[in-house]
Amino acid sequence: MTSSATPRYQQIAQMLRAAITNGSYKVGDLLPTEQELCATHDISRHTARDALRLLTEAGLVTRKRRAGTVVAASSPPNLFVQPLGGFQDLLQYARDARLTILAYGPAPADGFARDLGQDPAGWKELRGQRGTGTAMVGLTRILVRADCAPSQAEIEARPTIADAIEARFGIAASRIDQQISAMVLDNQLATLLGSEPGAAALRTRRLYHDGNGALFLASESAHPADRFVYSMSFNREKAE
Questions:
Q1: Where does the sequence pass through the membrane (predicted)?
Q2: Which domain covers residue 207, as residue numbers?
Q3: Domain of residue 15, CATH code
Q4: Disulfide check for 218: which of 28, 143, 169, 223 has CB 3.0–4.6 Å away?
Q5: What HEC string does the chain produce?
Q6: Contact (CB, 8 A) for 121 and 109
Q7: Residue 90's pLDDT is what?
Q8: In a domain, 139, yes or no
Q9: Does residue 238 sit within a domain?
Q10: How far apart are CA 143 and CA 46, in angstroms?
Q11: How far is the C-alpha of 123 from the C-alpha of 105, rounded, in Å?
């Protein structure tokens, strides 16, 4: 039973979640509109919107303008958990979060190379999706130095682009710099990710340097907050 102390929007979200879980609303079904929820439950438009936002953040529904709120899953999708540890943990993400290539070619003048202060003429850019099974956990763009850029077939044949580069050109990362920052999804990213514009997300940027310290590979990914989490464990050190 829902406590009376529970905010009204959470009560409505819990009720709708239960209806999705028990099959009253199946995947692909439309949920009641905000106006219908307001009329049925005597709530404000703001309360209805917040209730649907909770379901969206849980990955149970997707909300699209003029299409309504559609049930996307019967249970919340599992988060992709990325250990935030050593060198091998960073490489493991690329191996576990499967890459689907959407585009791969010369780096555009207004793309990732420009953001990194690099001359686009010397690079190739890949854009793709990261996922586990059928669940997409993020969008990624990857910059590869043109003189060590594998073919798309070589990339698809290896667990990671770094593996493909090492196999083809003998260049391996000796240092990876990682930056993690908060972001909100703009309209374009939200549409591609099936999320709500303005939803919270994580941006991860990784810069791969060879043995001479030269940048040869870079990646930047956007992960909706409800699909991705970084995890660390700390052991208390014993006093001397």
A1: none
A2: 80-231
A3: 1.10.10.10
A4: 143
A5: CCCCCCCHHHHHHHHHHHHHHCCCCCCCCECCCHHHHHHHHCCCHHHHHHHHHHHHHCCCEEEECCCEEEECCCCCCCCEEEECCCHHHHHHHHHHCEEEEEEEEECCCCCHHHHCCCCHHHEEEEEEEEEECCEEEEEEEEEEEHHHCCCHHHHHCCCCHHHHHHHHHCCCCCEEEEEEEEEECCHHHHHHHCCCCCCEEEEEEEEEECCCCCEEEEEEEEEECCCEEEECCCCCCCCC
A6: no
A7: 52
A8: yes
A9: no
A10: 42
A11: 9
Residue at which a domain ends, from 71, 93, 114: 71
Tokens at 87, concatenated: 């060198």
Task: Give the per-residue pLDDT at 3.
Answer: 47
| 174 touches 210 (CB < 8 A) | yes
29: how many CB neighbours lie within 10 A of its CB?
A: 15
10-residue averages of pLDDT along the chain (240 residues):
67 90 89 93 91 81 79 68 53 66 95 94 94 77 97 92 94 90 90 85 92 95 79 57
Residue partners of 166: CB distance under 8 A and separation at least 6: 172
pLDDT, residue 1, reads 41
- Using the 3D structure, point to which of 71, 90, 112 is the last residue of a domain: 71
Residue 26 CA: distances (Å) to CA of 13, 18, 47, 52: 16, 12, 23, 16
The answer on 202 and 143 residing in a single domain is yes
Distance separating alpha carbons of residues 240 and 126, to the nearest angstrom: 50
In a domain, 237, yes or no: no
Spatial distance between the Cα atoms of 227 and 204, rounded to a whole number of angstroms: 14
Q: In terms of domains, do 43 and 154 share one? A: no
CB distance 58 to 195 below 8 Å:
no
